[in-house]
Amino acid sequence: MAKQTLEFQAETKRLLDLVVNSIYTNKEIFLRELISNASDALDKLHFESLTNQNILEGNEAYEIFIVPDPASKTITISDNGIGMTRDEVIANIGTIAKSGTKAFLERVKESGNVTEELIGQFGVGFYSAFIVADKVTLITRRAGDQAASKWESDGTGEFTIEECEKESRGTTITLHLKDEFTGAEGSEKNFTDVDTIERLVKKYSDYIRYPIKMNFEIDKVSDDDQSDDQSDKKPVEKTIEVRTVNSMTPLWTKNKNDIKPEEYNEFFKHQFHEWEEPLEIMHTKAEGTIEYTALICIPKRAAYDLYYSTYEPGLQLYSRHVFIMDKCKDFLPDHLRFVKGLVDSPDLPLNISRELLQQSREMKKIGQTLEKNILKQLSKMLANDREKYEKFWAEYGKALKIGVYNDIYSGKVGEELKDLLIFKTSKEKKYSTLAEYFGRMKADQSKIYYAVGKDEAAIEKLPQMEILRDRGLEVIYLLDPVDEFALSTLRQYEGKEFQSIAREDFELDDDESKAAKQKTEELAKDNETLLKDVKEALKGKVDDVKLTARLKSGAVCLATGSFGPSLSMEKVFDAMNNPMFKAVKILELNPNHAIFGRLKALDENKDSDEFKSFCELLYAQALLIEGVMPDDPAALANKIAELMSK
Ligand code: ADP
Ligand code: MG
Asked: Please, which residues have CB within 8 angstroms of residue 13's CB and are 6 or more apart in sequence?
């Protein structure tokens, strides 16, 4: 096919612009990115060769070769990996297909700047070549294909692509370096220098599993020169020697005690395309019926799409240090999806399909042990380093809470996770575990109280809170919509049931409260018609109207039925387009409030607009207190205005 000039996809152009024009402190990361792509390409080739030996065409060497060349002011990175077809070049290099990139651009818009962290986090790897090069030439041949393609671009708006010759499979990328990176006078860095490149490879890519080779010019001492005399004036011959620059020893195979924290950190960043050191590292070796080594890390920050379907959880799988597959999902349950890591085991059955492998007994067994270890490590962190655990919680607490909720299906009722939950409460400004709350419960307290709200301040202002505060009862604050779902799965802790302060069946069991309740019940009997009239006036809006003893200075509140979804759960279901799940709403009136007297007076004329408006205003207030927007805010405003002008 003839040479074609194509334009970069609009988004790619923007991205390129951002990458090239942003000010990096670290120009050298391009090398890490290109080596990492080469390594990925070798992984892909290896993976495909497991089922199709032919693809190797007899050449089983896997390697990456780097040639810095001062004469042509270039640096060339080659691999004999999977390569790309013409269409793949256009799709992979010319357009941004990855869903993460959109998010990347959005984040850039937010922060107004492209930082190295952002690049690293989202892996816009290939384009980093244009930080140091004003022209990039890529020649590639897909393993198994005959035709090769040459792609070239100066990184502005267009690229060209044409058919070409290439002797062997794989990809060769040549960066035509900008002057300031060639060692010319006043240049910043010299990427045509062998020693510089060797150092960078060691720094960023030492654990790449494939040999990264370079040519080294060495002084050759002639054979007949046996003397030790170095001052010998004989001219020394120069000769080229190929050396592997990286150590290639997978970090996880080393002894734990021989690994420095920086080594773990660097490895983690490289291996999992992370840009910050991890929050936690677990390195375990197991011997016994199933032998394996696992290196598990918890990133400091949750992936931006951790809770979305675009996020692919899973561990990398190796067998005898050879990469088998990425994102192996079946090791760990979904609520540990934030964990990154790898498992290397000689005991996995590899001669079966990927699907069967994932369901194999060996894999299940390893997974179970890993899960236990991770949870154990987390509870250690919770006990010994609360500050760190709170950081963990801020990022991943939601995942564990969803895990508790999902236990509904497994019948485990959160047994393994319940002691890892932490909440803010009305007594402690910091987080408490359920055990800590339990330890502080009053001797005669029969339930664990909780309240739902958008933040601490909103809960503290709830009229229902007043009475609990008076009685010195501690209330757990549920600020995340998933919290109430989690507690509703747990149902109880150490035999004490969870009780929402907003449910109909909420009551306190001290003498004073009991007396108040009895009095309210009597009053309710006396006011039966009034309650019926209010209910009639709010038909279709509330399911019942009652008098309550739970309010002190508040006039009204909205309670939900003892069973079924609560108001906040209803909001979640609504947001999921699941309007079937409705809370049973009970409007509760405080008979000791002045408003109640007014209501009684108005009820004399229960068919009047005034009575109806009054009821609706009460209901709207109750909704607002719960943070629910009334259906028709404009009508509400009108009613208030009317009342105010009277
Ligand atoms: P990422 O590596 O995160 O996918 P990059 O921008 O680094 O993003 O690379 C884009 C894509 O280009 C890769 O996913 C891969 O498909 C392709 N690619 C890049 N370099 C190579 C290479 N050396 N061999 C084969 N494919 C490559
Ligand atoms: Mg990459």
From this structure: 7, 157
